[in-house]
Specification:
Helix content is 72%, strand content 0%. The protein has 10 helices and no strands. The two termini are 31 Å apart. It is mostly helical. The protein has a single domain, classed as MetI-like (MetI-like fold, Orthogonal Bundle), CATH 1.10.3720.10.
């Protein structure tokens, strides 16, 4: 019975991959307006969580389906309960897929333009791509400021990448060894 519910829930969440974001644009905007979240960072956070969740759930589910049950069974034979077995055995094995999910979501959200423009437009809150777009106009574009903004907006991602480069490469190359 629970296996059936699990499949239905997974299918429902993965169905979010099939729905284009533009289809939900007007209802989401009206919802954020009614909740008085326009111009607030929370509107962008909620939208991004909703957009990134189906793909993240898909990656984790496929990774966990490929994980051999031998690890959990060995932990249960050693006296671990189901929760402790997950925390001490399975959770550390999720590092590669967690790194993949974090990298894909971070780069996608960091470079996103349309959602912050729509939900944060006209407020003091803004993101780097939207702020850089402010230097472009119909008749005059301030190219030195645009390029300086692009370099400044790339620096945080590069710093994080170089700081975690060893772990990122190990996570991508490692996968599951069994």
């Amino acid at each position: 019975m629970t296996r059936g519910w699990s499949r239905y829930t997974f299918s429902f969440v993965i169905g979010g991959l099939l729905i284009p974001g533009q289809l939900a644009l007007l209802p989401l905007y009206a919802t954020m307006r009614d909740l008085d979240l326009l111009g607030s960072v929370w509107s962008v956070i909620l939208i991004n969580v909703g957009q990134q969740m189906p793909f993240s759930v898909f990656l984790y589910t496929m990774f966990l389906r490929e994980l051999p049950l031998d690890y959990e069974e060995a932990a249960l034979l050693d006296g671990c309960g189901p929760v402790r077995s997950f925390v001490t055995v399975v959770f550390p094995l999720l590092r590669p897929v967690t790194g993949t999910v974090v990298i894909l979501n971070t780069v996608g959200i960091w470079n996103e333009f349309f959602t912050p423009l729509l939900y944060l437009g006209g407020s003091d809150n803004t993101t780097a791509p939207v702020a850089i777009y402010g230097f472009v106009s119909q008749y005059v574009s301030q190219w030195p400021l645009i390029f300086a903004g692009l370099v400044i907006s790339v620096i945080p991602i590069l710093v994080v990448y170089f700081a975690l480069q060893k772990h990122i490469i190990k996570g991508f190359a490692g996968g599951l060894k069994g």
